[in-house]
Amino acid sequence: MKYKFPKDLYTEVRIEDTKNACYSMQNDDVLANSETMIKGAMIRVFDGNLWYTAQTNDTDTKSIQKKIDELAAIATPDKAILDNPIVKNFSVNKAEILKFQGKNNLRNLTKKDREDIVNYYRKKCIDKSIPEIKVTYPNFYYFSKIKELYTSKGTELKQDYQRCCFNLWYEITGREGVAYGGGKQLWGFNFNELKKHEAEIIEARDRAVDFAKNNTPVVPGEYVCVLAPTVTSVFTHESFGHKSEADFMLNDKTLQKEWTMGKQVANPKVSIVDEGDSLHHGYCPYDDEGNKKKEVYLIKDGILSGRLHDAKSAATLGEEPTGNARAQDFNYGPMVRMTNTYMLAGNDKPEDIIKGVKDGIYVYDWNYGTGQSTFTIQPQKCYRIRDGKLAEPLLVNVVTGNVFQTLFDIDAVGTDLEFFSGTCGKNGQSMPTATGGPTIRVKKLTIN
């Protein structure tokens, strides 16, 4: 064992080696061109009542051992610490999972690499002759992390993560001088995944300009709505995924009562999963407490089937940990977070879902979403559905609905499951996540 852990206490050491880089512009001006490298550790000691923590950027063994000893000196030893319900939920795992250390390691990228990809897309995709486009924001960034975890129970883990992004965003002046935003974001686990997407970027640009010029305000009311996969994904994440994070209900008896396993909460066409093994942007083979990430059906065939746990929430509610304890970095303690969260594909063809609507709204994409009992989605672009066909672009401020009623009102689930990368914020921490979903149809949503 690398460290000498104190007797009758639970101790863990989480070490992280992080490198980030970015290159961003506004029109022809460079706003940032930087690299950041940080190495640090969080040391935690638990005596059954309190956690004692310390952070340090000095990660050599002697320095970390000193922090362990200092924390142990102020904790109260407990001979029965291994019988503590929370400590019992920390499983013992030993593994080294390094997926990103070969030729596609983003840390190998040079300053020229990140400048070249931005300038390539600027040349291919920015058309200064389009009068509606007033400002352009091309940018690239990457994030790379290697994590190690050592615990007094015997866990020894080493795993890595990386992702990169190119984004080209526009400020567009449209109908009656109103300002709109639009653009395209590309995500990848390696640099080559971001190349040769100019056709997609140009299509997104032209769609945004057309929408800005030609949209008409929607008449507020209740409509049949078809949600595109990206909108389904944010509904799934914000409206149901967060409700499934068990730390929200630890002190809420009403929520615990409402959240009864085995209860039908959705149309039987609906199933929602959270898992960390598939290579999407919530990839997380082991969580930051050392537990293996489990595949959890939050809803299966319309039935409430599971929720997401760290060691504490599982102990409090008498359930099994699911490996969902995640921390933004070594400065933070882990909390319950989603990983890859998505609604499973159904059996309905997307074109048939739209054909089945005589008069409704197609929600094409979104700016933001929130949700607990009631959810709100602010779309970027919507389109009228008239006699089963997409028609004119509509300006919609917000789409709202009751979460559980909406889950029952989903009457069609498409075959076209797609995944999307994102960053999720909770209690001051941001984590990479993946969201996913197919095209769905909802009988009734409120549109304003």
Account of the 3D structure:
Keywords: Hydrolase, Metalloprotease, Protease. The chain is of the alpha+beta class. The chain is 20% helix and 41% strand. The chain is built from 9 helices and 25 strands. The protein is globular, with a radius of gyration of 24 Å.
Question: Which labels suit this protein?
Answer:
448 residues; alpha+beta; ten-stranded mixed sheet; PmbA/TldD fold
**Which segments are poorly predicted (pLDDT under 50) over 5 or more consecutive residues?**
none
Structural class: alpha+beta
Give the CA-CA distance, first to last residue.
60 Å
Strand content is 35-45%
Name the assembly state.
Answer: single chain
Radius of gyration over alpha carbons?
Answer: 24 Å
Overall structural domain count: 2
Helix content: 10-25%
GO cellular component, one term: cytosol
Pfam families: PmbA_TldD_1st, PmbA_TldD_3rd
GO molecular function, one term: metallopeptidase activity
Keywords: Hydrolase, Metalloprotease, Protease
